[in-house]
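User: New here, any thoughts?
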Amino acid sequence: MIKKSIILIIASLLLSSCQTVNYEKYSLLTVNDEKFIPPTKSKYIRGVSKEQWTIINKIGDPLNCEERINKLNKIQKGNIITSQEYSNDHFVIHTSLRENKVTILTEGTYNLINPIVVPENKYLIGEGDVIINANFAEMGIYNSGNIKNLTIQNAKTYGVFLGNFSTTYNVLVTGTGINHPLNSNGNGVHSNGTASHSNCVVSVETSFGYNEQGSSNITIKGGNADGFTVKYGAHDITFIDTHAHHNSDDGYDFWKGGAEKPTTTYQPTIRIFYSSANHNGKNPFTPNGDGNGFKFGSWDQYQRNRGRDKGDRLIYGSVACYNLEKGFDRNRSRMKIITQNLNSTGNIVNYKDVPVPFNKNNLDKSALTCEMFPK
């Protein structure tokens, strides 16, 4: 059962080669009294204000995501690598991550041959407009450490695969799976299995994902390409200021997400704050699948050998706008879904078996609305 304190806290807050995608450059935002610069071409990442962090901490930040982001933002020195150095030696990033605490990539395009693996307690930071072109790699980055200020495009199956205790911050992932005819996945930020846990994903955008192949008629031709996933036992994850749009399947998919024994006493194993799922199922470059915004779980009768949903889901201050089918979808999950300050419009069904949030007398002016995003 959900602890009553969580609900009371929320109530008190209310009372108190590839085909790349062209965007316009996003304007600077003031976050924590500093200039926050989203990745070039992002029109969705907004940054997290002091007021938003205060609310998040009151509701619950068991992974200390704010502290992790503050630590990332204080890093100024590290081993510097240029795109030319990487062109001359495709192992130079791997070597640096092995030998140094902090690796800094200077502005430019890095054409991957193999995925980048960021180990636990290591840092990979972009300086300026850093493009990771993963067209020839199965995935862009496997992250069990900390990554910041990167754009990852055109990976074959996964833009970022989350390990454990990782932080992914100020990252744009786009075009995963596009122009890869053999791929069966096209997920932007992917967490899968019980070994994927204790991850903070903050100020991240995933868009235009696609998969060509699949295990059934449902999953082929765009039916298995989601913006963010928490699947098959992956658990204990916090999403803040994350945005999934124009993916060929769902914005967020938590199919069989959660573990038998969560690593924290804090009840919800999936926590989402100030995030959006817009225009999913409407990838303009590819065929499309179901196209839901937030899919909160799975049906127990399917894939019984792969487990069942575990742990509650909490979503606050977020939106689902103009998705092909449903905005917020329980998808027959047995798990409790805690909702507050949500906005959903332009979907065939806005709330499918999900508690419609009571937003009367909402005093949180930071809660997102569909009008804040491109239509």
